[in-house]
Every structure is written in structure tokens, then in C-alpha cells.
Design a protein that fits this description.
Elements lengths: L13 H13 L11 E6 L4 E4 L2 E3 L6 H12 L3 E6 L11 E4 L3 H11 L4 E4 L6 E3 L21 E3 L3 H6 L9 E8 L3 H12 L3 E6 L11 E2 L1 E5 L2 E4 L3 E2 H21 L9
Parallel strand pairs: 1-4, 1-6, 4-5, 6-9, 9-10
Antiparallel strand pairs: 2-3, 7-8, 10-12, 11-14, 12-13
Helix pairs in contact: 1-2, 2-6
Bound molecules: cytidine-5'-triphosphate.
The site of cytidine-5'-triphosphate (CTP) has 15 residues, from helix 4 and strand 9.
């Protein structure tokens, strides 16, 4: 090493280094603005097994969640990053938890509490199959009947954490709304229904290229209004969100309000 120290070490993954450098030069979140703030981020899709070789999933790449995690870490936050099987490499974070299913994601989120801020960027599968088969489902020999899969709803992690009535509820809960129709109306209804504090709405219709893509066009909905951002790189969307969180924190600190209790 340049300083003359000698011994075994391990370099961070090259993808993580590239991501950190890119984030640094494209959107510089105010370093230190989130020092000591505990933030939980969920990201990526979930995979819901049907049998040992098949699963239900969605097109989430995990890019927006990873960009948010990287921007938070760059701003000094203590990030717990809970991710499903995403294509995007995970960001630098204090704690990284990898999960497969919605139920595992739920348990990892609950185990990570208390935190000050929770951001639910994951595209959690809404349903899982009622009975996961232990062996591979085979085609019927006469090829007459296709298997009928019975689905049951997964826990709604965002709604559950938003509606916690204990001190474990994070002071700021931020959800996403992935919509294809009536984006803003649906997002407004989602904000009310789930009872999170902020909601980031995006149009994930195939022609937007947002789901699985590199850019996002988001509208931030809060109790005090709506703010539409231009179509931006997902890193830039993450930087804007982190700047908003820093503003929120500065305001709370000014008012002498505290966050969730220490672990
Ligand atoms: N979410 C969650 N747990 C679930 C489903 C969704 O935590 N089981 C979170 C997502 O991470 C996101 C928000 O809820 O922050 C909204 O997800 P979205 O897929 O847009 O909405 P749904 O709850 O699936 O509702 P709908 O299918 O009616 O659009």
C-alpha cells in the first residue's frame, strides 16, 4: 500500500468501485449531511418459488434501490440494504442482507428496526404460490392439463411498517408506486392506503423503459404537496431524494425532534 502497510487485504468489487466513482462525479450528495442517520432500503425483485426450478418474479433490476443506497452512504448515512435477487450490484452499505422471497424480505426488514428512515424501493412480488412443490412439476403424460397454481398474497411490508403504532416506526417512511395507468391518481390512493409519509410515483409502462432501465421519471408525493422531477438517470433521482431527506432531517433537528430510539 502507498502508506507502506503490508499484509492481506481485500479490494471492494470493481462494479462497486465504478459505481462509487460515477455517483461521486455525477451527483455529489452533500457529504456528511446524513451523518449517523440510520436508513433501511429495500431493493430489487423477489423470487417466489413454484418448485425447485421455477419461480414467480418481475422485471425489477434493483438499479433505483442501489442508486439510493449509494447516495445515502455517500452522504454519511448508516445504510442497511435488504435486497432481493437483483441484476444491479449492491451499493456500499453498512449492512447488506440478501433475500429471495417477500417473506424473507419482511423478516429482514423487521429485524433491522429501529431505523430513522425506511425506503421501500423493492418490487416485492404481491403473490406467492400457496404450496411450493418439493420436486419439479412434470407435464401430464397425455399433455391435457396444465397445472393450476393457487396464489396467496404476500405480506405488504411497506404498509405494515408504515402502520406500526410503536416506537419502532421509522420517523420517515418512503414508498414507491409502480404504475402503468392513472399514475398520479393511483399513487395518491396508495399513499393514503399504505400510510407512508412520502411516495415516489413512476410510470412503469413498457414504452417508458423505466422498469429494468437506467432512467426514471418520478413524482414525489408528500402530505404537503407533489413535486414532479424530469426524466433523469436513476443516480440523479437518488441524489434528489437524498437531498430531500437531508432537508427533512435539518428541519427536524432545528425543531429539536428526535428519531426512533437507539437500538
Ligand atoms: N411493497 C411492499 N410489500 C409488498 C408489496 C409492495 O413493501 N408486498 C411496497 C413496494 O416496495 C413499494 C410500494 O409497496 O414501495 C408499492 O408497491 P407497488 O407494487 O407499486 O404496489 P402494490 O402494493 O403492489 O399495489 P398494486 O398492485 O395495487 O399497485
Amino acid at each position: 500500500m502507498a502508506c507502506g502497510e503490508f499484509g492481506f487485504g481485500r479490494m471492494a468489487e470493481p462494479e462497486q468501485l465504478v459505481q462509487a466513482v460515477e455517483t461521486y462525479f455525477t451527483n455529489v450528495p452533500v457529504a456528511g449531511s446524513l451523518d449517523g442517520l440510520r436508513v433501511l432500503v429495500t431493493s430489487g425483485p423477489t423470487h417466489e418459488p413454484i418448485d425447485p426450478v421455477r419461480y414467480l418474479a418481475n422485471r425489477s433490476s434493483g438499479r433505483q434501490g442501489a442508486a439510493i443506497g449509494a447516495a445515502l452512504t455517500a452522504a454519511g448515512a448508516e445504510v442497511t440494504f435488504v435486497t432481493g435477487p437483483a441484476e444491479a450490484p449492491p451499493p456500499p452499505a453498512q449492512r447488506l442482507v440478501s433475500v429471495q422471497t417477500a417473506r424473507e424480505m419482511h423478516d429482514a426488514v423487521v429485524a433491522a428496526l429501529p431505523v430513522d428512515v425506511a425506503i421501500f424501493a423493492a418490487a416485492v412480488a404481491d403473490w406467492r404460490v400457496l404450496t411450493e412443490m418439493g420436486g419439479k412439476i412434470k407435464k401430464a403424460p397425455d399433455m391435457t392439463a396444465a397445472p393450476q397454481l393457487e396464489l396467496v398474497e404476500n405480506p405488504d411490508i411497506l404498509a405494515e411498517i408504515s402502520q406500526l403504532e410503536t416506537d419502532a416506526r421509522p420517523s420517515l417512511v418512503i414508498g414507491f408506486a409502480a404504475e402503468t395507468d392513472n399514475v398520479l391518481d393511483n399513487a395518491r390512493a396508495k399513499l393514503q392506503r399504505k400510510r407512508c409519509d412520502w411516495l415516489i410515483a413512476n410510470d412503469v409502462s413498457p414504452e417508458t423503459g423505466i422498469m429494468g432501465g437506467k432512467e426514471n421519471q418520478a413524482t414525489l408525493l408528500t402530505s404537503s404537496g407533489e413535486e414532479s422531477w424530469p426524466r433523469l438517470d436513476k443516480d440523479a433521482v437518488a441524489a434528489r431524494l437524498v437531498a430531500k431527506i437531508a432537508e427533512w432531517r435539518a428541519l427536524r433537528t432545528e425543531k429539536g425532534e428526535t428519531y426512533a430510539p437507539p437500538r
